[in-house]
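subagent[fold] <- orchestrator: predict structure for attached chain, return tokens only, no commentary.
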Amino acid sequence: MEVQIEETWKNILKDEFEKPYFKSLTAFVKSQYKNHTCYPKGSDIFNAFEFCPFDKTKVVILGQDPYHGPGQAHGLSFSVPKGIPMPPSLLNIYKELKDDLNIALSPNGNLESWAHQGVLLLNATLTVRANGPGSHQKKGWEIFTDEVIKKLSSEKQGIIFLLWGGFAKKKAQLIDASKHHILTSGHPSPLSANRGYWFGNKHFSQTNKILKKQNEVPILW
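subagent[fold] -> orchestrator:
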């Protein structure tokens, strides 16, 4: 089975594509896309990897599920294509950016520029059925994306993992904290942010401070 994924990731993950769980996952996803409206479109499923090769990854921002409304999901966690109204979580990310680094609120919710600078915008589940949040969970995607996190942890050094909310924080157990940086906070969703668990985390400035200490180029958020 041939998976269309960026070359450096393909080399790192090639064994996963031959495992029974991944073959079962592929059959499930193909069936779902054939019989239902699903997001993102097929050619965008692996965009997080396409825009941020393994050897360029410096920062990881972990989401849970793709957006399940029309035109929103395009393979990058929290991001929406240009021209699509900004979901509430993304708006709160931009508000924190403004408070933290005095970056003006963007009218554009497309985060591809972050990905091209080495920010892996990874959802734990890479596909979803329209208007069905969580509909493709526990089908194998989490096994695959956990492996992605483990490979980054074992093969690289000094990556900054931004874990927002309870679901993402659980992934800390997959990361070797002795050689990577883990920053945690509440989720940027309104429910969490309005309770005071998101705003003021200063993760964007902290990330850039760490990158500078490591003699790496900071992210232009």
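orchestrator: received. Logging for downstream: DSSP finds nine helices and six strands in the chain. The chain has one domain: 7-214.
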